[in-house]
Design a protein that fits this description.
With about 70 residues, this protein is mostly helical. Helices cover about 65% and strands about 0% of the residues.
Length: about 70
Amino acid sequence: MEPNCLSRRNFLVLTTMAAASVTLKPAFGESQGLAYLTLKEASELVRRKTVSPLELTATCLKRIEAYNPVD
């Protein structure tokens, strides 16, 4: 019998990433959704080059401006 190459840890990582990608798909339609990601989620998107650091920073700055307008 051939040993399974997929460990429990790898299985959990893969299923978590799959669930996150399904959950995050609507966020790509509206860039404001990027401002609500956790640091881990945002860093993973930047690492995979799904989102640029510039786009992520601009979105976060827009959110800051919306909640803390400079008068």
